[in-house]
Amino acid sequence: MNFRGRVFLAPLTKGGNLPFRRLCLAHGCDVTMGEMAYAYQVVKRSKSELALLRKHPEETCFGAQIAASRPADGIAAGLAAVERGAAFVDLNCGCPIHDVVKRGMGATLLQRPTQLGKLVAELVKGIPAPVSVKIRLGWTDSDRNASEVAKVVEEAGAAALTVHGRTREQRYSRAADWDAIAQIAAERSIPVIGNGDILTWYEAHERWQKSGVASIMVGRGALIKPWLFREIATRQAFEPTASERLAIYHDFAQRLKAHFRDDEKGRERAMRFLPWHFEFFCRYRPLSAPQWVAAASQHPLIQTRMPEEEGLSVLERLLRDPRPELHQELAGLLWAATDAPAAEAAALLLAERMPPVVGELGEVAVGHG
Predict the structure, then answer these.
(1) Out of 24, 29, 61, 95, which one is annotated catalytic?
(2) Which of 43, 45, 170, 210 is geometrically suited to a Cys-Cys bond with 166, CB 3.0 to 4.6 A?
């Protein structure tokens, strides 16, 4: 497993489902990661948690992320992941959500560096695959101890370290601190992977180069535009038209159908995901113009409110509409459409029935460490 010179898809709660990972692979993704699995639930053979360790044959470099507080649970979950084809196992030490931290996992481990070091050392000894660790900058702004934690993680034998450039307290409310990520990358000899606020290819390369990280990881940016990976690889913007984007979303719906099966139960399961993804798809805006490159150097574009444009096509306005009820309708028609042209025809009929409303978008967060 080579942790240098790569672009990782972050382990995204709900968003990192197997069909979405396949969609990212089709658009140039190099390394995929599964959704965080609770190690203690894997030990109990929970079907839902074991499913998070499943990879597709197309995923040639797949990492399984686990949340654990006890070495025995973490090792058992890691072994289950490797048995299912994981190339590496990642320990989540950054997830900020209450359900994780109250169990002594995720970002809670940042407050207990000594315990964390012992946990990582045991995982490294017990799992026959590289073990990486994902952290945030600290528990609060006043308690940023990421440098100390990174040192402990390296000394415990971790193969790589991912740093999300925010504290647990900040969640997603502030811009990621890439200067702090750069400091940790300079201090450590193991590969450091930088994570936070990457939406465009030029932001990716600017942060990669300036911070000196070994690799980068993208999360919400990939949810907004799964083709971000090809943009980073080619250093060139790909600005699909509304018709082209709808075809990509139709492709995603068909991957969901292949995964969950084309029946009523499969549709019900897929609809837990597809409308949710439109909360991110609707945020797409073309951002290759020179003013956006300049603006990105001042503030992350993923946290910048975009002015609405005039003269947009009906289909474009439909795909930018932030209403959840419309997302439900779009998901349904994509599931039913036989091909992309049929999906577009159905979408235009939907626009007549539910005239598009495009307004300012609020922040949308997704859980990941």
Answers:
(1) 95
(2) 170
